[in-house]
Amino acid sequence: MGPLVITVAPVGGELTREQQPHLPLTPEEIAEEVAGAREAGAAVVHLHVRDRDGRPTQAREAFAEAMDAIRRAAPDIVVQTSTGGSVGMTEEERSQPLDLKPEMATLTTGTVNFGDQVFENPYPMVERLFLRMRELGIQPEFEAFDTGMVETARRLVERLDPQIRHLHFDLVLGVPGGMAGMAASVIHMASILPAGASWSATGIGRSHMEVTLQALALGGHVRTGFEDTIYYAKGRLATTNAELIARVARIARETGREVATPDQAREILGIGSIGGERP
Ligand code: KMH
Ligand code: ZN
After folding, report:
1. What pLDDT digit, counting tens, does each position of 227-236 carry?
2. Using one digit for the tens of pLDDT, what is the confidence trace for 4-13?
3. Which of 58, 80, 82, 121 to mutate to test the pocket of ligand 1 (most atoms within 8 A of CB)?
4. Integer Cα distance of 146 and 204 in angstroms
């Protein structure tokens, strides 16, 4: 198996300090968490940010501030901005961080119930976000909450960019409304991905370790962080994102798999391969 890319998701679009007292909110707090995660083995940061009152925002300026702080604290980490934002945000709001040309950005390819709410991703919007990413040379991470989203990503690429050089997926499992966070889900999802695609997985909430361990066993990559689990173990809140990253890195090394550097991650995820002229 090749090196393991670990992504840290330190903030999330919905989480509050009431739920997770260690949640980073300001650009400095986020950068400090990212630096700790980088030291522990994370090569990529999946980024959401907050406004001055700690509320989720997709504002360009807020992302710019957080990205500047991250660049100072963890200069080599790959920054992957969210285009999902939080439930209920408009397309206009959600697309703002793309203007900053991050190396990577998420792209959820379908609508899904999200607890009692609906995370809306109508197909025409997904196409527009994809085209904007391609125009700016931003590598998409296709976020798939169920099998239909994998098929939609496949269809989108066939229509808009059949010569695309690399596809990368993140399997987000265990969202109430999406596919169950079970080992069997990881196995099935991994089996239907387009040939040659790279993939990571994350289990939301109590499914976190089952999904993580199955992804590791199959040679996939892993995402972890407060966005995905606020607990380190049953009844014990995580105190830093770094401790969640360190556990994954430890398991990988114990089982003979090295942990990818950000440059190795760039290679594995196909960063820099989208946009521009095709050969
Ligand atoms: N907060 C969720 C509704 C993404 O970042 O692209 C969407 C989400 C996915 O977190
Ligand atoms: Zn997210």
Report:
1. 999 999 999 9
2. 999 999 999 9
3. 82
4. 13
